[in-house]
Specification:
Elements (H helix, E strand, L loop, with lengths): L1 H26 L4 H14 L1 H11 L7 E5 L7 H8 L5 E8 L6 E9 L2 H9 L2 E4 L2 E7 L17 E5 L7 H8 L5 E8 L6 E9 L2 H9 L4 E2 L2 E2 L1 E4 L72 E5 L4 E3 L5
Antiparallel strand pairs: 1-3, 1-5, 2-3, 4-5, 6-8, 6-11, 7-8, 9-10, 12-13
Length: 318
């Protein structure tokens, strides 16, 4: 009887192993979307499977860690964690500070204990923290995160001529009437924390950004502000740019000029006298060609040289 039971158990075990291998063979050719749908269906029906899926998904912290950018210079790690704890238990959270100055670098990280908390936070990526609209994305996506969207240039606006009294909250409230804002803030000086007189607003849609540009009412804080696409403002420093000149090939021994600036009004601008003279290697010249062989004597003619010209002289025959 004992042998019979033992044999039955072995057969059952072999049956489980073979069915597991058969399932693997059946699942192997399936595409990822099909597998995801299948596991989601099983997880919703069987709580034990759902717990196993959560455990495996949350094992790697890369799926639970958020990068938070756009923080105010005075935002602390405690304030950052307090703003994100509504989505779930936080395992770790910190603002990143400059090692040399001890000041905030304007961004930080949040790591949740469970992956589903991270997903809840990503559904509402923008948060107003200390008067600044901070934005989060998965840390594994890099520092830029969602800002790499192809239509970003059509959604991000530069706001200029801002009054020093205009705060980030006022800026967001004013431009929020045109559509939902993804990210935005007044630019502040890192040392003094005072407004630099401009800011940026990124809408979730290009249509909302166009409405803000086309809106004739642009008075904020008692000033008429400048509203335009942020890309059109890049590289404009108000200084004339130098005219580049193509480098020409030069003989060996001379220094090749890489950058040449042209000044029209005063050709001596930017020069200090006396100028240091660069040393050049002594030029080498080829050896002169060898002297030609003397002409053979011709019958009836004399080749006696006359003067210094070595021209032949001719005499009549006697």
């Amino acid at each position: 009887m004992d042998d019979f039971k033992k044999r039955k158990l072995e057969e059952a075990g072999n049956g489980d192993a073979s069915s597991k291998e058969e399932l693997r063979l059946l699942l192997d050719p399936l595409a990822k979307p099909q597998l995801v749908d299948l596991l989601a269906k099983l997880g919703s029906q069987y709580p034990s499977i759902a717990e196993e899926i959560k455990s495996i998904a949350s094992a790697d912290p890369v799926h639970r860690k958020l990068f938070v950018r756009g923080l105010a210079w005075n935002t602390s790690s405690e304030t950052l964690c307090a703003a994100f704890q509504e989505h779930g238990e936080i395992e770790e959270g910190a603002v990143i500070y400059d090692k040399a100055t001890g000041k905030s670098r304007g961004y930080g990280f949040i790591t949740y204990k469970h992956m589903e908390s991270t997903h809840r936070a990503l559904r509402a990526p923008s948060k107003l923290i200390d008067g600044r609209l901070a934005v989060c994305n998965l840390a594994c996506e890099g520092l830029s995160g969602a800002s790499n969207a192809p239509d970003l240039s059509l959604r991000k606006l530069y706001i200029g001529s801002l009054s020093p009294e205009v705060s980030s909250e006022m800026l967001l409230n004013f431009f929020g009437r045109h559509g939902e804002i993804e990210e935005g803030s007044v630019a502040y000086d890192k040392d003094t924390n005072e407004s630099r007189g401009f800011g940026f607003v990124t809408y979730k849609t290009a249509e909302a950004a166009k409405k803000a540009i086309d809106d004739p009412e642009k008075t904020l804080g008692g000033r008429n502000v400048i509203v335009k696409y942020a890309d059109s403002h890049k590289g404009k420093t108000g200084q004339p740019s130098a005219v580049p000149m193509t480098a020409l090939p030069m003989a060996p021994g001379y220094v090749q000029m890489q950058h040449v600036k042209t000044h029209i009004s005063n050709p001596h601008v930017g020069y200090n006298y006396p100028q240091p003279v660069a040393s050049y290697p002594a030029p080498s010249y080829p050896s002169p060609p060898a002297a030609p062989a003397p002409y053979p004597p011709v019958s009836g003619k004399s080749t006696t040289p006359v003067g210094m010209n070595n021209y032949p002289c001719y005499y009549p025959k006697q």
